[in-house]
Amino acid sequence: MNQAKQSRIEFETWEYILPAIEEIAKVSAKGFAKYGPGNWTRVETKDNINHALRHLCLYRDKREGVPLPEGEENENHLAHACARLMMEMAKGKYIK
Fold this sequence. Notes:
Layout: H1 14-35, H2 45-63, H3 77-94
Helix pairs in contact: 1-3, 2-3
C-alpha cells in the first residue's frame, strides 16, 4: 500500500486539544447567552488582549493561593483567556 507523505507527529495532539476545546466552548456558550452570538466580532483588539491577560493573572493567582475577587473563584480562567485569544484570531481571519 502506498502511503501519502506527511510530517511525523511525535505525540498525540488531540490529547490536550479536545479537552481544552470543550472547556473553551463552555465559556463561549456562556458569553453568547449573556452578550449575544455576534457580539465578539465587535470587541476591540485591546479589550480582548487585556481580558486575556487578566484571566491569565487570575489563573496564576488562584494557583498561588491568592484570594480571587468575589465571583471569580469558580471560573475557568485559562478557558476564558483562550476564548479571548481565539476570538481575536477569528476576527483577524474572518472579519474584515
